[in-house]
Amino acid sequence: MIENQHYTLVSLSNMILAFEGQESLLQVELDEFSCSLNKDVEKFLKEKAVIFDKQGWSRTHLLYTSYKKQKVLVGYFTLANKSFMVKNDAHISKGLKRRIAKFGQYNEDIKKYVVTAPLIGQLGKNDEYADLIKGDTLLKYACDEVRKVQEIVGGKFVYLECEDKECLREFYQSNGFVEFGCRELEADEKDDLSGSYLLQMLKYLK
Q1: 60-to-13, 52, 79 alpha-carbon distances in Å
Q2: Entry pTM
């Protein structure tokens, strides 16, 4: 079913404008999304994505395709302008360290490089139509959007945070991401995520 599948990327910002005065209809659209593998991804789209977009904290993008002559939501991702920190002694390749040093600023007090880069804050497929898109494809769309931004403002890195699960590590590593650290969960994240921290992974976009 995935072979020769065509997708349409729609920004939530444009949807908010299109549904102005009819916010309940937009909510119905978002409520059709479910992600049993990551309830935090599902909760964000249903409860926070619109608010974050209106406040300018992040931008969410939804991916649609045709199924039985109808347009269906197969997945989404959210991007935000953030920064990450990498320890000087982090277990990453020398080549990657040189690139981080080139784009980041070294803070002598904390012995870390600080790099401003887009964060892929959310990434998930819709359970009902999960067979209509590969995770690799969804992630590629997210990275391609980051590249468009960096063509204007500069930069070469993108990063993300995920639960410390082997399947997730393998998925992101197979797509060129490298683990560089971890971040403790905040209080409002603990109900929907397992463990006490999130792995941090980055990619240099060529």
Answers
A1: 8, 9, 6
A2: 0.92
The partner residues of 60 in beta bridges, in order of sequence, read 78
* Cα 183 from Cα 181, distance rounded (Å): 7
CA distance 61 to 67: 19
pLDDT band for position 91 (50/70/90)? confident
Using the structure block, give the residue that is written with the tokens 């560089």. Answer: 180
Q: Tokens 């999304």 identify what position?
A: 33
The number of beta carbons lying within 10 Å of the beta carbon of residue 128 is 14
First vs last C-alpha separation in the chain: 30
Residue 100: φ, ψ to 5°: -65, -45
Helix 166-174 and helix 135-153, axial crossing angle in degrees, nearest 10: 50
The pLDDT score that the predictor gives to residue 3 is 58
Burial, 80: exposed, middle or buried (Cβ in 10 Å; 0-12, 13-18, 19+)? Answer: middle
DSSP 47: I
List pLDDT tens digits, range 1-35.
565 689 999 999 999 999 999 999 999 999 999 99
Q: How far apart are CA 116 and CA 205, in angstroms?
A: 14
Is residue 86 within 8 A of residue 159, CB to CB? The reply is no
Query: Tokens 């999960």 label which residue?
Result: 130
Q: How far apart are CA 56 and CA 62, in angstroms?
A: 17
Residue 199: CA atoms inside 13 Å, Cβ hemisphere, count? 17
d(CA 184, CA 182): 7
Report the distance separating Cα 152 and Cα 156, nearest Å. Answer: 12
